[in-house]
Write a structure and sequence with these properties.
It contains 16 helices and 17 strands. The protein has helices spanning about 1-35, 45-55, 65-80, 100-105, 105-110, 120-135, 145, 155-170, 225-240, 285-295, 350-365, 380-385, 400-410, 425-435, 450-460, 475-485, and strands at about 175, 190-200, 205-210, 215-220, 255-265, 270-275, 300-305, 320-325, 330, 335-340, 370-375, 390-395, 415-420, 440-445, 465-470, 490-495, 505-515. Helix 14 runs parallel beside helix 15.
Length: about 525
């Protein structure tokens, strides 16, 4: 009898140990996927299948390129029919809570059921798993650290609806908000790519700064960046060891290569490579350039930019052309533009044509108007408008951009446009003091929006129409209030999605002066 009891105790201990071990594994698994464990004894085959499936979806055991290919295929299929989003969408929370929503996506349904439940429960579980699959497929390997693509786990059609809803919320009290113009293909649209270089465990790495830090997140490929630009950056990194080039260390101040900036003309195919170095001394630079061109003959020009300052700015003030003409050209709205390393040029060429086309339509030019292009950059908006206006005046504070604007006018045979290097607000105030005016003002300020001083200067010019091109809807709404004080009322706004998978949206808004 004693022996039987001992055997029973031993068997009981083994069962408890096995059960405890199973729950330890469950805890580890649930901790890994960020969910609470379901308290149910044993592990069914359905549980194991789900866990193995979830492991695959999370990207483990898959290459980065394979994961990105699958998400591209998935989202293209989902967004084929997504053109313009309905302005009456009920989605809210533009950019602020998308990550929180993503983390909780599908959890509510899962927490109310157990594996192997009823058919209704199984159906709910299946739907939750399907949603989770969609989320996992869309997950970039470094999205949580990079912070560049806030909506990467959201179907593109839903992104457009969310942005439309936010535009309506911000601008609906001022004017009519039309349906957002989305992209046909929302991948690899960036024609400008920047990579920062550094060290990790003795090896050179390249990528982007982690959000709100100077920690480098290594990036091989990015789903919104130009693919050829990514390839060139990887090639440059692989060449550093053989040419004995050290990357710059921010902590010690030693090293040569700090950043690589690449710009590509999507229409012309021309490629500019900018090597940002901490010192003008570049050992074996001719051989390095030759080797890089052999690997990538599609490169049109290579420039060395020197930035020896302890600053967060990418580019320095001095440059040397190592190969080619030092700039590239691209075509936009029927005109050809010169683009250098520091030039402002919209990063999404396809959507920019839609944006500027709508801006010209709202300006209602007849060929007689005097047009002022404030924040003119390399002259894109003003030169496009020159075909339909009597006279164009462009004002820009960046001297390099003004130089490019003048060259762009000559290149396109445009004689009715002039460009000035000056503060646009001060320039307009001086024009008004001389009794000069403009019929139409185009303004495209940075994301921080305009200033009250600038808007005051616009009002002094008394233009009939103001076409405001904004990349910050919140600051646009703020500026519309200021314009209203000067008798300018917003008539209509057209959102255009230039920045897919992110929380940003471009908007062109028409303002007209109220009749006295």
């Amino acid at each position: 009898m004693k022996q039987d009891r001992n055997v029973k105790k031993e068997n009981s201990k083994k069962k408890m140990s096995a059960k405890k071990q199973a729950w330890n594994l469950d805890d580890k698994f649930e901790e890994w996927i960020g969910e609470k464990p379901v308290k149910k004894s044993g592990k069914s085959s359905e549980q194991n299948a789900f866990r193995e499936d979830d492991r695959k979806r999370s990207g483990k055991g898959m290459g980065k390129n394979a994961s990105q290919e699958s998400v591209r295929d998935f989202v293209r299929e989902k967004s084929q029919n997504a053109g313009k989003a309905d302005g009456k969408s009920k989605q809210k929370g533009f950019g602020k809570s998308s990550r929180k929503d993503d983390r909780n996506f599908g959890k509510k349904a899962e927490s109310k059921q157990e594996f192997g439940g009823s058919s209704k429960s199984g159906k709910l579980q299946s739907e939750a798993e399907e949603k989770k699959t969609q989320k996992k497929k869309g997950l970039c390997p470094v999205a949580h650290r990079c912070g560049g693509c806030q909506y990467l786990d959201m179907p593109y059609a839903e992104q457009l609806q969310m942005k439309q809803s936010q535009m309506q919320k911000l601008l609906g009290n001022y004017c009519k908000v039309h349906g957002i113009k989305g992209m046909d293909d929302p991948f690899h649209y960036r024609n400008k790519v920047h990579a920062v270089f550094g060290y990790r465990k003795g090896e050179a790495i390249s990528g982007v700064y982690e959000e709100k830090t100077h920690n480098i997140v290594p990036v091989e490929t990015c789903m919104i960046e130009d693919q050829k630009a990514d390839e060139i950056i990887v090639t440059i990194r692989s060449m550093l060891r053989s040419f004995k080039i050290r990357v710059f260390d921010e902590d010690t101040g030693y090293g040569l290569l700090r950043h690589v900036l690449i710009r590509r003309g999507f229409t012309t195919g021309e490629i500019l490579v900018v090597l940002v170095t901490a010192s003008p001394v570049f050992p074996s630079k001719n051989n390095f350039v030759k080797a890089l061109r052999e690997k990538h003959p599609e490169i049109t020009t290579i420039v060395q930019n020197i930035n020896g300052r302890s600053t967060s700015m990418v580019l320095g003030d001095k440059e040397h052309v190592l190969y080619g003409k030092g700039y590239i050209e691209d075509e936009l709205c029927g005109l050809r533009f010169r683009i250098s390393s520091r030039s402002f040029y919209q990063i999404n060429s396809v959507q920019t044509e839609k944006l500027y086309g709508k801006a010209m339509e709202l300006a209602e030019l007849t060929g007689k108007e005097t047009v002022l292009d404030a924040y003119c950059g390399i002259g894109t908006i003003g030169l496009i408008a020159s075909k339909h206006a009597g006279k164009v005046i462009g004002v820009e504070l960046n001297q390099d951009a003004v130089r490019d604007a003048v060259q762009n006018a000559k290149k396109n045979g445009i004689t009715n446009a002039q460009f000035f290097c000056n503060d646009a607000g001060r320039f307009m105030s001086h024009m008004a003091a001389r009794g000069e005016s403009a019929d139409v003002v185009f303004m495209a300020p940075p994301r921080s929006g305009s200033t009250e001083e600038f808007i005051d200067a616009v009002a002094l010019m008394q233009p009939k129409r103001v076409v405001y091109i904004s990349c910050g809807p919140d600051t646009l709404a703020r500026d519309l209030k200021v314009f209203a004080k000067h008798g300018y009322r917003a008539k209509e706004a057209w959102p255009v999605d230039l920045f897919g998978w992110t929380g940003h949206v471009e908007t062109v808004c028409l303002l007209s002066r109220k009749a006295q």
